[in-house]
Amino acid sequence: MTAGDQGQSGARDQPDGATGPPARPADAASLPARLRAVYADRVGPSERALLLSWAAFGVTFGTARAVTHLLRRRDLVTGGSGGIVIGGRHLHHYNLGILLLVAVGGVGVHGQEQRRRHPVTATAYGTGAALIVDELALLLDLSDVYWARDGRTSVDAAIGAITVGGAILAAAPFWKGAATEVVRTRPIT
Description:
Blueprint: H1 3-6, H2 31-42, H3 45-78, E1 84-86, E2 89-91, H4 93-110, H5 113-116, H6 119-134, H7 136-141, H8 152-170, H9 172-183
Antiparallel strand pairs: 1-2
Helix pairs in contact: 2-9, 3-6, 3-8, 4-6
């Protein structure tokens, strides 16, 4: 068996319950620990930052869509203005996204590797990008077309697909290892 067959940590030579080949069954109870081991073994600092960014993007985009729909429904009933209002002026959430990306840019140009790859930095980047992308039509048209039905559903679906695809591609070795661990898990008896 070559080092390439073993993975980075020689996982195939470990005791039952550790990560291993699909032909060697493992207990269902050990699946969370085995998935953590796969993550630690196959996802480096760059992939972790990418994965966190994509995950934050997806969660933030979905949350922003849900909150804005709830606010709109509430405002149609109560006649409110919805969202964040300061001094009678509506503050769009893309402004918060811009602030987050400015902060991440500051961390990026500061030059300290530990801070650039920190999970908070990666999460802030994905969150800021999602807040901006969610209101991209407003930024492009410079008018509030957020609720226009033309293409909104297809745009939401496309962004959702891009989010899932990005999260998969960002940590492809992890997903492959995770699938192997799920396949080799014995049913609980």
